[in-house]
């Protein structure tokens, strides 16, 4: 019997049949860039999630940093509330970096 089993819905389950929590994986491809969401996985604990994320999402050494976050710990805005979250910023033009040119040496922004 393997350590990872699948329940009837095809989701990963732990050795005792209980489902492991879902983790979201973020990878930074090189220093100075943002972490990007690249997928999800089931793991029993943070250490296992980090090891599995490394094995699955950075097989070709394309990353310099990996974050794993339990999905149930992420708090997100509702797309239906877009106006409440983002429209008030439109009247504050000083918040938008449109008044200067970036140097050519800054190529990742």
Q: Could you characterize what this model shows?
A:
With 109 residues, the chain is α+β, with helices and mostly antiparallel strands. It has a domain at 5-77: Phenylacetic acid degradation B (Ubiquitin-like (UB roll), Roll). The protein has helices at 46-57, 82-86, and strands at 5-6, 12-13, 22-28, 35-42, 65-70. A 3-stranded antiparallel β-sheet has the order 4-3-5, covered by helices on one side. It has a two-stranded antiparallel sheet with strand order 1-2. It is flat. The termini are far apart.
Topology:
Blueprint: E1 5-6, E2 12-13, E3 22-28, E4 35-42, H1 46-57, E5 65-70, H2 82-86
Antiparallel strand pairs: 1-2, 3-4, 3-5
What is the chains' assembly state?
single chain
Gap from first CA to last CA = 49 Å
Sheet/helix structural class: alpha+beta
CATH class term of one domain:
Alpha Beta
């Amino acid at each position: 019997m393997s350590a990872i089993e699948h329940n009837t819905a095809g989701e990963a389950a732990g050795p005792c049949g209980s489902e492991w929590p879902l983790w979201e994986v973020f990878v930074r491809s090189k220093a100075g860039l943002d972490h990007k969401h690249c997928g999800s996985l089931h793991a029993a604990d943070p250490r296992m999630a980090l090891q599995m994320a490394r094995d699955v999402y950075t097989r070709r050494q394309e990353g310099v940093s990996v974050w794993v976050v339990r999905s149930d710990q992420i708090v997100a805005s509702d797309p239906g509330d877009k106006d409440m979250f983002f429209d008030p910023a439109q009247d504050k033009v000083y918040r938008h970096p449109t008044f200067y040119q970036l140097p050519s040496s800054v190529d990742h922004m």
